[in-house]
Structures are given as structure tokens and as C-alpha cells.
Amino acid sequence: MAILDTSARVRRPRRRTATAAMAVLRFFVTVVTTYLGLLAVTFFIGRVIPIDPVLAILGDRAPASAIARVRVELGLDLPLWHQFLIYMGKVLTGDFGTSVLTTYPVMQDIARVFPATIELATVGTLIGALTGIPLGVLAAVKRGSIADQVVRVIGLIGYSVPIFWLGLLALVLFYAKLRLVAYPGRIDIAYEYTFTPITGFYILDAIIARQWDVLADVLRHIVLPAGLLGYFSLAYISRMTRSFMLNELAQEYVVAARAKGLSETRIIWFHALRNAAVPLVTVIALSYAGLLEGSVLTETIFSWPGLGLYITNSLQNADMNAVLGGTIIVGSVFIGINIFTDLLYRTLDPRTRRR
């Protein structure tokens, strides 16, 4: 009997190790497959779009001999599968080619403009989370009331109204009419030559440099575009918070807590919301990723010098190296945030580790 018990105890750790190894392998295969799919899509988009990269570099009046030579140098005379392997190898080493518009390496351009997009999306997500979660809780607690209907209408408008229309309307109202915010852009032209960014995140850089006048100017520029993105984030977060809270408030532990005489405030904010926070982390992370990839129109409307505006200008000038490089970076960030969210979810919810 003792021998059987010992063998059973030995087999259990082996099974756990094998299960963990298989989970890691599946996770790795999923990540690699997703990234290869991203590379394949961007590669074939670059080949399907009716823009000749050689003519984009040399111009329409270049001689035929120069066009043929550059085509060979770019590897466009090779079979499609060979071109894809070369493309994949360059991308994996961070080589996206040279931008026709700026004449700099695309990776260098992205490193310059991407902090502006991250800063805008971060502030927008903070606004959306700090307002969306309380509104979602309020709607769930007051289910069916006027407050619930108002929150749901706010979320519906956020989902329905085109962001470019709302952005233009906000500019007309808050900048042109009321003069409450600064003009489109990231910083006033008066500070462009006196303010030296350190990290590329202007709010943080102004605090580090203790240039409070610059900080005030940066905040006046970012408040409107970040508020617009925050509103769309709020619509998603408040809706999901309401759904999660309704599910938690219907659980037996809430009934038991009320029977014990706990206050409604404690039940809602310290028990129900705490349990709803696990899936809510995923919602906020996905909302953040959505703002990073979906801020193209916002950056264009507000002349925000981020990755979205960079991709838009590159597309208008047939600069496909920059367009595809920016698309890959956005896709990679989205994949990375999804991976981080999945790991965080497994850490916060022990039940998912057994799956």
C-alpha cells in the first residue's frame, strides 16, 4: 500500500510538469503563428496595393535602366516566397527600410513619433477607466433607473458617433468658440526650441525638467484629443463594468453579506467590484490596445505628431515602407498587450491556471 502511495505521489508532479510544458508550448506556437500571420498580411498588402515602390523612390520620369536596377536591388525580381523570406528576416531584425518621405530609416522615425501616441492613448485610457468604472457600477446598482438609462445612452453615443465628426465638433466648440484648449498640435511653437524632450513623453519630461509652464501648455494641448479617446474608452469600459457587476451582484455571497448586515457600500466596492476587477483588467488592457491602434483619425484631426499621423502622411505620399512598418509595430504592440493581459488574468484568477 505504501509503495502504491509513493508511486502516485511521484506521478502527480510529472503530470503537472508535462501539463505546464504543453501549456507553454501551445502559448509559444500561438504567439509565433499570430506574428507570422501579421507579417504575411502586411507583406501581401504591400504587394497588392497598386503602388510601385520603385517609382515611389525614383519618380515617374526615371529612365528604364534605373528602374530595372533598383528593382533588382530591392529584390522585386525574385519569386514571391523568396521576397517574403527576405522581408521576414529584415523585420525580425528591426529593418523596415528607409522612408521615402523623411529619408530616414523607418524604425528611427517610429521611435521618434510613437511616444506621442503612447502618451495620448495612456491619458485617454486613464480618463476612460477613472470615469467608466464608477459609471458602470452606478448603472449596475441602479439597474432600470434613470441613472442606468443615462449611462447606457452615453455609452451608445460613444459607440455610434464617428470619431472624426465628434473631434471636429469638439474643436469648433472648445477651441474656436470657447477658447478653453490650445490649438491642434502637441506643444506651443514658443516652447519648441526651449524645451528639450528626454523620454519623448512630454508630460513626464516637463515634470522632470520642472518646467511648469511647459507642463501647463502640454496639458492644454492633450486634454481635448485625450478626452475624446477617453470618451470612446469610457463607452466600452462602462458597458462591460455594468455587465460584470450585474453578474457579481446576483451571486450568493452578496446575499450572504447583506444577511450579515454589511453596508451596501462595502458590498459593492469591496466585494462585488473586487471580484469583477479580474475580467475588468482584460477590458481595460484591450481598450488601451484599441486606442493605440485606432488613434489614426484622432491624431489627424488634432495634428498630433504620433504614429497615426505618421502612417496617414506616409500613405498619402505612397511611402509603403513607413506604412507597413507602422502597421507591424501597432500589430506587435497589440499582440504583446494581449499576451500580457492573458498572463495577468491567469495571475489574478487562480482558477484559470488549472485549465
UniProtKB/TrEMBL annotation:
<dbReference type="Pfam" id="PF00528">
    <property type="entry name" value="BPD_transp_1"/>
</dbReference>
<feature type="transmembrane region" description="Helical">
    <location>
        <begin position="218"/>
        <end position="237"/>
    </location>
</feature>
<feature type="transmembrane region" description="Helical">
    <location>
        <begin position="322"/>
        <end position="345"/>
    </location>
</feature>
<protein>
    <submittedName>
        <fullName>Peptide/nickel transport system permease protein</fullName>
    </submittedName>
</protein>
<feature type="domain" description="ABC transmembrane type-1">
    <location>
        <begin position="114"/>
        <end position="345"/>
    </location>
</feature>
<feature type="transmembrane region" description="Helical">
    <location>
        <begin position="84"/>
        <end position="106"/>
    </location>
</feature>
<feature type="transmembrane region" description="Helical">
    <location>
        <begin position="153"/>
        <end position="178"/>
    </location>
</feature>
<feature type="transmembrane region" description="Helical">
    <location>
        <begin position="190"/>
        <end position="212"/>
    </location>
</feature>
<keyword id="KW-0813">Transport</keyword>
<keyword id="KW-1003">Cell membrane</keyword>
<feature type="transmembrane region" description="Helical">
    <location>
        <begin position="276"/>
        <end position="302"/>
    </location>
</feature>
<feature type="transmembrane region" description="Helical">
    <location>
        <begin position="118"/>
        <end position="141"/>
    </location>
</feature>
<keyword id="KW-1133">Transmembrane helix</keyword>
<keyword id="KW-0812">Transmembrane</keyword>
<dbReference type="InterPro" id="IPR000515">
    <property type="entry name" value="MetI-like"/>
</dbReference>
<feature type="transmembrane region" description="Helical">
    <location>
        <begin position="21"/>
        <end position="45"/>
    </location>
</feature>
<dbReference type="InterPro" id="IPR045621">
    <property type="entry name" value="BPD_transp_1_N"/>
</dbReference>
<comment type="similarity">
    <text>Belongs to the binding-protein-dependent transport system permease family.</text>
</comment>
<dbReference type="InterPro" id="IPR035906">
    <property type="entry name" value="MetI-like_sf"/>
</dbReference>
<dbReference type="Pfam" id="PF19300">
    <property type="entry name" value="BPD_transp_1_N"/>
</dbReference>
<keyword id="KW-0472">Membrane</keyword>
